[in-house]
Amino acid sequence: MRRFSIKKRVTLWYTGMIAVVLAVVFAGVFIFINQLELSKTEEDLQGSVADFADEFEFQNGTYYLSSDVDYYDDGVMFCIYDQDGRLLHGSMPVEFPKNLKLRSHEVRNVKQGGKQWMVYDAAYQYGTGKAIWIRGIASIHSMEQTMRMVMLAFAAVYPLLILMIGVIGYIMTKKALKPVDEICTTAEEISSGADLSKRLLVPKTEDEMHQLTCTFNEMFDRLEASFEDEKQFTSDVSHELRTPVSVIIAECEYALEEDSISEEQKQEIRIVLRQAKKMSELISQLLMIARCERGKETFQFEAVDMSMLVETTLEELSGKAEEKKIHLLSEIEPGLMAAGDQMLLTRMLINLVENSINYGKRNGIVKVSLFREDGKIRGIVKDDGQGIKSEHLDKIWNRFYRADRSRNTQNQERGTGLGLSMVRWIVRIHEGQIWVKSREGEGSEFIFELKEM
Description:
With 453 residues, the protein is of the alpha+beta class.
């Protein structure tokens, strides 16, 4: 599952909290305004009924009401009932329930036919056992409709508002975390090994980013010093080992020319000589890598015919392939030119093909393809050997790492562990790419890409 970036997570949390707070605030405001409007309507209704009651004159056990009294005033309808609940005067809304019981001095909300009203009844005694009821009816349907429309409008605007807040929050978060992005970018450039002397730009403001940048720079200083010490050690050790190994090789070759020693002794000397030559090759590779990493090696970049170079490499390694009964096949597009150092590119091809031969199965096939694709030169070295376990695929490029156990434990042609490391290093120098595809028991496929001239 792909993980969200910090910017996205912060934006989501920020937007989510704002959304919840806005929803709670609006709900609270909506409820408060609704209750406030209902309370105001209730007070107005009670006041209107009291004012309407002032129009009555109670005298001598009866009541008097002016003939020009208005039964509708400021949105309130008035009805007059006797003590038995019979309607005497007034008017009421068409859909209002006519048989609604009278309740003295009690405000009620009544719903009927999708309409809503607020009702208030007041009883007034005007004689022995006589009473008159005044009912005030105020419609609250329009108010409820208005509140409902406000709620629908908010529901429509709410997502857009949250989206706008999210976009603004993301922009603000991105701007706030821009120094972190710059630190990551520079750190990746440094970690690639292209320029270990490069450092992060220290912010002027002494905040958390300033402290983080200084800490990273101190760490890079220690890493660079450690890496330089390692390169110096590799170079010094390689130089020191070169002479004694050369002496061992010379003495072994001299001893093999002597007739005074037995064949069994010569066989033992040949084993020593073979291992000494391996060590000499390893030392040569280490010296070349050390010199290149310290900038003491110059490369001769020129136009190189990669098609011809692959064919030459296959011819050179054909004898070794025959020893293992491996068939070398090729599929080469002619005339593919690349800008590079011919010696290094030759070493790259030899290492790749030798690797496939060393780890290929007996009577197997190693196929080398070279062709043009998307303006680049693509090469593929494929074998049908035992392949590489998935847990070793990302480690085979490391120096001195050998995944022999995952491939062929019976293989006698065990390498130095520098071949693929040097291949990747050469490809990087030429600003190319290389990767591997492999499945255990089915073989391996090394693919490289170089810029075409």
